[in-house]
Every structure is written in structure tokens, then in C-alpha cells.
Write a structure and sequence with these properties.
By secondary structure, the protein is mainly alpha-helical. It is 81% helix and 0% strand.
Length: 67
């Protein structure tokens, strides 16, 4: 069995070195996306409560944001 340089050991090591930073970056950015979407819905709710937009416009925009 070849487990040295000629085997797949170096390939797996390369994949691990790519996967770990990718997972960390993705994990750090994920909460920011959720926060910005929540903030957009909050603004939409406030505008609807103040009467700036009607119900049909509100429902259309909310459906677009929650997709």
C-alpha cells in the first residue's frame, strides 16, 4: 500500500487546507445575511404600520424578502 507522497495523502491534505478556511469564512458571513434580511423586514413592517404602503404592496414585498 502506498500512503506516502505518491498516494492520495497529499490530495486529502490539500482539500482539508481549502475546506477549513472556506468553512470559517462561510460561517462568519452567514449571520450577517440573516441580520440584513431581518432588518429589511423590520423596515417594511414599520412602513406598513405608518401607512406608507398598502396591504397588497406590503404582502408582495414581504413575499419577495422571505424567498
Amino acid at each position: 500500500m502506498m500512503w506516502g507522497i505518491g498516494g492520495f495523502g497529499s490530495l486529502w491534505m490539500l482539500l482539508i487546507w481549502i475546506a477549513i478556511p472556506t468553512a470559517v469564512i462561510w460561517g462568519l458571513r452567514a449571520p450577517q445575511r440573516d441580520q440584513s434580511q431581518n432588518r429589511a423586514i423590520e423596515i417594511l413592517n414599520e412602513r406598513f404600520a405608518r401607512g406608507e404602503i398598502d396591504r397588497s404592496d406590503y404582502e408582495t414585498r414581504r413575499a419577495e424578502l422571505t424567498r
